[in-house]
Structure prediction request, 185 residues.
Amino acid sequence: MAAPRSALQHLRTSTKTSTFRSTTTPLRTSLRQPLQRRAQSTATAPNSTEATGGRLAQLWNSNVGPKTVHFWAPIMKWGLVLAGVSDFARPASSLSLTQNLALMGTGAIWTRWCFVIRPKNYFLAAVNFFLFCVGTTQVSRVLAYQSAQKNESLGEEVKDAAKEQAGVVKGMVEDPKTAGKAERT
Prediction:
């Protein structure tokens, strides 16, 4: 009587012979499979917050949740808002008009942009709106201080500041080399 083969010996011989029999068929179907659309069932999709684990789980797994930059960028941007709010205690004479104009401008532009991009990020829109509000408040404080120094009205001060900034921009456009040196001094 012949000695029985062990399971390992049987596996070795059967794998060697079956490996080379039909290698092209499984390979071709596996290459085509990602191109085919996968069927998805909507019958098992949960609609309520209880089925998904609550609101915290929804936030965690959302497109703008803590796993993404769409969450952490606004968190860091709140630092700018808080810095602007802390400047409310500073005298208006020590505030920078151009810096606060930049804060006001970026706040306005990015608030609008947050509603255009996908996914819509209301958290980022809120921080940009508050950045705009802080910048507007500080700009109005600086302009009111400067107009009080010159005994002018606020409207005239806004016109003068706009003319001054337009002159700076025009000088930079005409001769960028000397304008950059003048800004540094």
